[in-house]
Specification:
Layout: H1 13-17, H2 19-29, H3 40-51, E1 56-60, H4 66-73, E2 77-82, H5 85-100, E3 109-114, E4 128-134, H6 143-156, E5 157-168, E6 179-182, E7 185-187, E8 193-195, H7 199-205, E9 209-219, E10 224-233
Parallel strand pairs: 1-2, 1-4, 2-3, 4-5
Antiparallel strand pairs: 5-10, 6-7, 7-8, 9-10
């Protein structure tokens, strides 16, 4: 059984809270840390969203915006949220440059907003056709916070809306390495805290959704081992 700790027992909340400053420093020192090409999950998500004619997309934890820019290029209306002020600043500037030079699909758009996903999402119920996030679910968020986030995403999705996310999981080679921060969260090389999700925890986070697909894949060095999870909001 997955245990949730609402009050933060056994969790190093100080280390988790310091991650925002860590990411700000990372983005400031390396403006293309993840490269400029869209991720494979974004390519896959674009296909399914296009097939289902879902145009209004919420992206959470956009990082440096490589997937966000791809979605806009493909004609999606994207509302992109991240808690890094530097990330919002960089994405907004890049989008304006590409838009002004007409390098993006005229139907696509990006609205970048600084927001902490531990708080209520700043949108009305039933606003979006879909939500997309690449490795947000394995950020230093407690299980309780992830459950709250999944519920919030469900709230802002339209009927039958999709929640597509990726996460590193407990078969990843870096699981149980580095400094333990509580609830399967480990501070690995580079100072990044990763929440490695088990399949059981993913089932817990799927409350209120139908599971459409869960696919394992690998990415980057090591390589990282991830799940790509596709959920559909229950009516």
């Amino acid at each position: 059984m997955v245990k949730m700790s609402q009050k933060g027992e056994d969790i190093d909340k100080g280390a988790l809270n310091r991650q925002q400053d860590h990411w700000e420093c990372v983005f400031s020192s390396n403006v293309s840390m993840f490269g400029k090409d869209p991720s494979n999950p974004a390519l896959w998500a674009s296909e399914i969203l296009t097939r289902e004619n879902k145009k209004k997309v919420l992206e959470l934890g956009f990082g440096q915006g490589r997937d966000t820019l791809y979605f806009a290029h493909e004609g999606f209306e994207v509302f992109a949220l991240d808690y890094s002020e530097k990330g919002v600043e960089c994405l907004t500037g890049t989008y304006r440059q590409l838009h002004d030079s007409k390098q993006l699909n005229s139907d696509g758009s990006i609205t970048a907003i600084r927001h902490d996903v531990r708080e209520r999402l700043p949108f009305e119920d039933g606003t979006f056709d879909a939500c997309y996030s690449h490795m947000l679910y394995c950020m230093p968020l407690t299980t309780f916070e992830l459950c709250s986030l999944s519920s919030e995403i469900r709230r802002v999705l339209k009927p039958a809306g999709l929640n597509i996310y990726t996460t590193r999981h407990t078969n990843d080679p870096q699981y149980r390495t580095g400094i333990y921060r509580g609830e399967d969260m480990w501070e690995i090389q580079g100072g990044f805290i990763v929440h490695f999700l088990s399949r059981e925890k993913i089932d817990l986070l799927s409350k209120g959704y139908d599971i459409v697909d869960i696919t394992e894949f690998e990415e980057g060095d090591l390589p990282k081992k991830l799940y790509r999870v596709t959920l559909r909001k229950k009516s």
